[in-house]
Structure formats: C-alpha cells, structure tokens
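User: Just a sanity check before I run the rest of the batch. Below are the structure tokens for the first item. I only need the designed sequence back.
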C-alpha cells in the first residue's frame, strides 16, 4: 500500500476562510500568501525536510517501521505500509505549505497553481470557477511550468467551471504532481503527457 502523502501534515497551513475580506478573493489571497511562504528560505527548507520525511517513510525496513510506529503510537503521524519491506514507487511532491478549503460551496475566478503547494478540499467542500475579466488563459485551473504540487479532496469533492472554458483543468510541463479525490465537471481535462514527468491523476470527470 502506498503512502497517502495528501494526509501527511505540513508545517504551514493557509485556510481560505481566513481571507474572506481580501479584495482579490479568498482563494487567490490564500494562494498568494502560500506562494510567498513557499518561495521564502523557510519555505524551501520546509519543503526539503518534508521530502526527507516522506523518503524515510518509504524506505524503512519492516523492523525499523515497527519500532518507529511504537515510538509514535500516540502522535499525529500518517499511517503507512510497505509491500514486503520494499518501497513502492509513487509520486511524492515536496510540499512547503498547504491551502485548505473547508466544507462549503466556494466560487473564485480562474487561477494557476504555484509550485511546492498542496491545495486540499476538505470533506464537503466544492469549488466553482468563473471567467476572469482579463484572462489570458482559456482554462479554469492551470498547472503549467511548475513542480511539486498536490491537488486533492476528501470524498470526491467537486470542482466545476462556468460555461465558456475550453478546459476545466489543463496540465502541461510539470513534474511531481499528484491530483486525487476530486470530481471535475463543466469542461474537459487537458493533459499534455509528453511534457509531464512523474504525475499521478486519479479523478472522475463528467
């Protein structure tokens, strides 16, 4: 069984509801704050430490895993398993911080995800994306020329878009990207596989 990295806690969290009064919109404001942190020295160090923790989890022998599990029995560390003691290859982005969307229905203008960030929709959260007045892209949600990103939900959260988009989700020129636990509707999903490296996408689409 693979390690579910979307459940591994990170050091810094930005909750969308904390930015409800932001003129640019709550999600955009939270993403901007997360991006600033991810690009700081502290953020880069946090991402490196996160990657080391994930590597340790995936490379532990059964004996060391058992000893560590006993030591951390009362901690909030994510559970994990290895198959026969051998690590199972998987996409493990280096995450500096995460942006949390709590339960509820939210609307925002189209946006692009930056590197080293996890965008997580908690159970009961749904997101509707609308056209921006000065949009340069015809996609609602863009992942392009970035690395180390997680876009995940808890319980098949829905991300939808307004009419007029050529794509709800467009992915190209990325590496170490994990997308899971989501239902996408309103426009097609476009993935340029030739330019993507180490990506895992597990979603349903209407």
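Assistant: Here's the designed sequence for the first item:
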């Amino acid at each position: 069984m693979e390690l579910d990295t979307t459940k591994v806690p990170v050091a810094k969290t930005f909750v969308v509801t904390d930015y409800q009064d932001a003129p640019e919109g709550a999600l955009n404001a939270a993403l901007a704050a997360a991006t600033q942190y991810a690009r700081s020295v502290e953020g880069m160090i946090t991402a490196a430490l996160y990657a080391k923790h994930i590597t340790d989890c995936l490379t532990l022998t059964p004996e060391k895993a058992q000893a560590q599990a006993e030591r951390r029995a009362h901690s909030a560390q994510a559970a994990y398993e290895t198959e026969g003691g051998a690590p199972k290859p998987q996409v493990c982005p280096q995450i500096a911080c995460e942006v949390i969307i709590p339960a509820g229905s939210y609307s925002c203008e189209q946006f692009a995800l930056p590197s080293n960030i996890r965008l997580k929709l908690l159970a009961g959260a749904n997101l509707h994306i609308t056209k921006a007045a000065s949009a340069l892209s015809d996609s609602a949600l863009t992942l392009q020329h970035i690395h180390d990103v997680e876009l995940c939900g808890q319980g098949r959260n829905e991300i939808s878009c307004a009419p007029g988009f050529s794509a709800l989700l467009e992915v190209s020129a990325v590496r170490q990207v994990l997308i899971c636990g989501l239902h996408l509707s309103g426009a097609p999903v476009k993935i340029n596989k030739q330019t993507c490296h180490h990506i895992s996408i597990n979603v349903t689409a209407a």
